[in-house]
Amino acid sequence: MSVARCDYNTDQRLAEQDPVAFWARQAQRLTWFKEPQRVLDQDQHGHAQWFPDGTLNTAWLALDAQVAAGRGEQTALIWDSPVTANKERISYTELTRRVAQCAGMLRELGVECGDRVIIYMPMIPEAVISMLACARLGAVHCVVFGGFAAHELAMRIDDAEADIVLTASCGIEVDRIVAYKPLVDAALAEARHPVRHCVVVQRPQHQAELYAGRDLDWRRALANALPAAAVEVAASHPLYILYTSGTTGKPKGVVRDHGGHAVAMLCSMYAVYGMQPGDVFWAASDVGWVVGHSYIVYAPLLAGCTSILYEGKPVRTPDAGAFWRVCAEYQVKLLFAAPTAFRAIRKEDPQAEQLTKYDLSSLERIYLAGERLDPPTWEWLNEHLQRPVIDHWWQTETGWAIAANPAGYGLKPIRPGSAGVPMPGYQVRILDDDGAPVDAGQQGNICLQLPLPPGCLSGIWGNPERFAAGYLQQFPGHYQSGDAGYLDEQGYLYVMGRTDDIINVAGHRLSTGEMEEVLGSHPAVAECAVIGVPDSLKGELPLGLVVLRNGSNIAEEQLCAELRERIRQRIGALACFQKALIVERLPKTRSGKILRRTLRQMASGQDWSVPSTIEDPGCLDELQQRLSA
Ligand code: COA
Ligand code: AMP
């Protein structure tokens, strides 16, 4: 159904004053199996539950409903894989067929509505097909980014209690084969929860060893499967779990529902990005991250667009023109990427000579997220592209943009350094540490007044207490984003950085607490701190500060190499842990808390002062020397 287009101010006001009326109108865009009569309710934990009595199926809406609307022949998904020299266009009809068959395969393996399925795959069509097949059955997918090590995979298998793992024989990192199956085997050996079956896509680049009984060859298992129909589920039924870094070593499973998510995804495609059915939308991310879930898979398909699945890097596959080549080849209208990707391109091609080789006439704008869009990158893109380059801010937890410059309402003037204005549905408030609102221009904790809009997390998998404790308790009536920033007089939001120990490495969110656990397990380490330090390419890089156990005389270089290897084995290469410094002491408060903020300020060359709570100020001189060396 078509929904009348309003202007930004009208929608923003309506969504704030009467969220029920605003979201009821947005929900009319979907073809529900059973239209919701109630718009907003509370679940048993008192958290917002959107469209509680509606029923639908997100995969059906993304595929069957598009075919029924006459888009069967249109390309739904383009797979572009420079690392394997492959390209494939998959129409909506064909994608529906392949998803239904994959759902049939899962059903024959005993997967039922509500069961959890782990997907650990590189950027191949089977990853998208697997996600949609789970959704079709009402099963809950849990995609794990391919760069994570076996231990991370095992933790997710256990937490989700997943019975099935879908994987591939390998991923390809530029020109290096990363064998996935040994990592899966190690994870299955470590996990306490037994996995019944592991289905493996055997890629021509590398054959995985399969263990009879447990492991199945994807093509063989699929060949015998009968297509499965979409299962009608309640709007509140979980669609997926996506694990993200928290401040502890244990990642948290963000849960998203079918109903609110579908409404929000569709709304965002029109309102935030200004997309229409048939447009080509490219989110240059990975299905293992929230950007991939929302904007490679669900939102573009729900909106009848063509989405691109790119198995490559911004550089080296084969050169710094890769992004421009893809945009030109498929007439991409909107490109969404992380700033770090453009820093990598700029480093290799500072004059943007590659860009001039391609016809980019279809490209209307670029949206960036995942980390702060630093002004030099914005300026470079702006100068060379001569198109709107737009920063927008969101999190795994929200699933779609909290603040943006919304093309669907007509772009507002762009203010470099700002992530734009709050999207209708989000009530952004800046609060001081005591929970009092601060004036425009003053920095504080960025919070969202409850209720959160549809599409945001409905909880943390199996851990409602962690949802409440981590996000809702510090500022009653608000969701605490974990970011600090300010709103200016015109309502533009500026996001300045995290208030907790999460760092952002090449657009990847990582927990320093988890890295500290790994470093702390080394026999020579008495105690340690990991902080993020600025990096011109990746935004931030982790740095370890280590105090040795009495009697240990390991050399710094040797320790550094061993710690690097431990982090790679335990968390994964994506952590980019390179450097550790041995120090005499770490600065602590009198209650024994490490003063990480002071360490971060020292390491990034910012002004810092001796904290009044410090126990032993004498240790700061040594640290400053080491950190500035
Ligand atoms: N599977 C296995 N290994 C992976 C992997 C995957 N899916 N993704 C990354 N890795 C490995 C890399 O091979 C690399 O290993 P190495 O240390 O042995 O070389 C390591 O993890 C670090 O990867 P990365 O940070 O990607 O570094 P890079 O030098 O290969 O590439 C960039 C640098 C900037 C080009 C790249 O980080 C990039 O494209 N970033 C954009 C990220 C993004 O889109 N984020 C989405 C959030 S919106
Ligand atoms: P993730 O959950 O991996 O998407 O990471 C979310 C975090 O990345 C946010 O809480 C911010 O700290 C950071 N982030 C994402 N987008 C932006 C942005 N546009 N500006 C500043 N920080 C951002």
TrEMBL record:
<comment type="similarity">
    <text>Belongs to the ATP-dependent AMP-binding enzyme family.</text>
</comment>
<dbReference type="InterPro" id="IPR032387">
    <property type="entry name" value="ACAS_N"/>
</dbReference>
<dbReference type="InterPro" id="IPR025110">
    <property type="entry name" value="AMP-bd_C"/>
</dbReference>
<dbReference type="InterPro" id="IPR000873">
    <property type="entry name" value="AMP-dep_synth/lig_dom"/>
</dbReference>
<dbReference type="Pfam" id="PF16177">
    <property type="entry name" value="ACAS_N"/>
</dbReference>
<protein>
    <submittedName>
        <fullName>Propionyl-CoA synthetase</fullName>
    </submittedName>
</protein>
<dbReference type="InterPro" id="IPR045851">
    <property type="entry name" value="AMP-bd_C_sf"/>
</dbReference>
<feature type="domain" description="AMP-binding enzyme C-terminal">
    <location>
        <begin position="514"/>
        <end position="593"/>
    </location>
</feature>
<feature type="domain" description="AMP-dependent synthetase/ligase">
    <location>
        <begin position="67"/>
        <end position="449"/>
    </location>
</feature>
<dbReference type="GO" id="GO:0070013">
    <property type="term" value="C:intracellular organelle lumen"/>
</dbReference>
<dbReference type="Pfam" id="PF13193">
    <property type="entry name" value="AMP-binding_C"/>
</dbReference>
<dbReference type="Pfam" id="PF00501">
    <property type="entry name" value="AMP-binding"/>
</dbReference>
<feature type="domain" description="Acetyl-coenzyme A synthetase N-terminal">
    <location>
        <begin position="8"/>
        <end position="60"/>
    </location>
</feature>
<dbReference type="InterPro" id="IPR042099">
    <property type="entry name" value="ANL_N_sf"/>
</dbReference>
<dbReference type="InterPro" id="IPR020845">
    <property type="entry name" value="AMP-binding_CS"/>
</dbReference>
<dbReference type="GO" id="GO:0050218">
    <property type="term" value="F:propionate-CoA ligase activity"/>
</dbReference>
